[in-house]
Amino acid sequence: LKVLSVVGARPQFIKAFPVSDALRRDHDEVLVHTGQHYDESMSGVFFDELDIPEPDYNLGVGSGGHAAQTAEMMTRLDAVVADEAPDVVLVYGDTNSTLAAALVAAKRDPALAHVEAGLRSHNWEMPEEVNRVLTDHCSDLLFAPSESAAETLAAEGIRDGVSVTGDVQYDAVLRVREAARERSTILDGLDLRDGEYVLATVHRAANTDDRGRLEGIVEGLASSELPVVFPVHPRTEGALEASGLWSRLADAENVVLVEPVGYLDFVRLLDGAERVATDSGGVQKEAFYLDTRCLTLRDETEWTETVDAGWNTLVGADATAIRAALADDDPLPEKPSLYGDGSAAERIVAALSEYEHA
Ligand code: UD1
Ligand code: UDP
After folding, report:
1. What distance in Å separates the CA atoms of residue 292 and residue 342, rounded to the nearest whole number?
2. Which one of 1, 109, 219, 303 counts the least CB within 10 Å of its CB?
3. Same structural domain, 117 and 154
4. Burial of 65 (0-12, 13-18, 19+ CB in 10 A)
5. Beta-carbon-side half-sphere exposure of residue 164 (alpha carbons within 13 Å)
6. Domain CATH code at residue 85
7. pLDDT at position 326, please?
8. Which one from 33, 37, 114, 203 is the annotated catalytic residue?
9. What is the pLDDT of residues 170-190, one digit of tens each?
10. According to the model, what pLDDT value does residue 314 have?
11. CA distance 57 to 33
12. 334 in a structural domain
């Protein structure tokens, strides 16, 4: 099978890392990077440290408004799909890169395969919700990380082509956890000790583009008793600077602002954290895999199983709620097994092989 995989944003490099590896054993892969993320710390570092093959194409699209960015990706990708004539276009998650590739594939010959199908926040204001719903409805093969994601698809009338594979990010975490413990020097570098700091990440538009919410998060984090290490996404850096909140964090005694870090360092930070406060999709799951308590800085989540299991708490963006959640010491319940067994990549490739022979 000739599979054209499309990635573009940080979490997609990480999701593609186990899948590409498994895919290349049995099939031909053409890897396309849309260029949605382009800073070394948001893109290059992952290709280097995870040994992801160099993309065959980098579309160099860069940043822009939703329409301009998505349209530019579609135009440039359409030419590549026409030239390469793949059997399958493989997309990940819910970014503008995902949607652009889905629409291109839907209007050309290749089948469309979607990793992380069936996730819903039920918040239509969220750009990612639009991207994931439209992508699912264009897809021929849908790889759901959980039974409940498959049930969501069924409720929307999508039954054909769905397989429950588990979560590829679980595969990714399992692959690097030990290496991160052995090789990452980030804790020493930041003078942090296991179990004695909070990790924070923020980048959702709903938080960065709303001054009230951003301020609530800043004040909540600044009130932490434990040191807070905060690798700052470029979008958030821009928003903090524009709203005058950067200095509030930079001056806070307990907050350590750092550039976005590579995957090994991030997994090490998350593994060692006493808890994590995040609005990231991927980090909520990775926290669960690494036994770290998670506070989600949003009002809803797609990863509802982690909340139901008692390992993830939705705290929103209110300073008082964040302060209270940072101090909450209720013991964590026993951990159920969610999102598969770490062989999602193998299951995805098996489903692709089955499709080839059907
Ligand atoms: C995107 C995805 C989001 C995903 C996130 C992962 C969409 C709509 N959003 O959000 O779902 O969770 O990636 O991190 O696709 N920037 C840089 N350097 C970079 C990349 C971005 O400076 O390498 C800055 C630019 O100012 C840019 C802004 O960050 O305008 C936002 O980047 P963009 O890719 O549009 O969205 P993200 O917020 O990163
Ligand atoms: N991540 C990383 N370095 C960082 C922050 C996050 O390597 O400084 C990784 C993290 O381990 C996870 C992914 O990036 O695998 C999550 O990406 P992000 O939060 O940007 O996007 P989302 O998952 O919300 O789409």
Report:
1. 18
2. 109
3. yes
4. exposed
5. 13
6. 3.40.50.2000
7. 98
8. 203
9. 999 999 999 999 999 999 999
10. 98
11. 6
12. no
Residue 195 region by backbone torsions, left for phi larger than 0, else alpha for psi between -120 and 50, else beta: left
Q: 112: which strand partners?
A: 89
- Do 115 and 258 belong to one domain? no
Same domain, 238 and 204: yes
Per residue in 78-114, pLDDT (tens digit) is 999 999 999 999 999 999 999 999 999 999 999 999 9
Q: What's the CA gap between 323 and 275, in Å, rounded?
A: 13
Q: Is 37 a catalytic residue?
A: no
Ligand nearest to the CA of 128: 1
Q: Which of 36, 40, 302 to mutate to test the pocket of ligand 1 (most atoms within 8 A of CB)?
A: 36
Identify whether 29 is part of a domain.
Answer: yes
Instruction: Calculate how far, in angstroms, residue 83's C-alpha sits from the geometric centre of ligand 2.
Output: 32
User: Is residue 175 assigned to a domain?
Assistant: no
Ligand 2 test: best mutation among 94, 237, 266, most atoms within 8 Å of CB? Answer: 266
332 is a domain residue? no
For ligand 1, say whether the CB of 11 is within 6 Å of any of its atoms: yes
Please tell me whether residues 230 and 120 are part of one structural domain. no
Strand order in the sheet with 111-115: 57-58, 28-33, 2-7, 88-92, 111-115, 141-144, 162-164
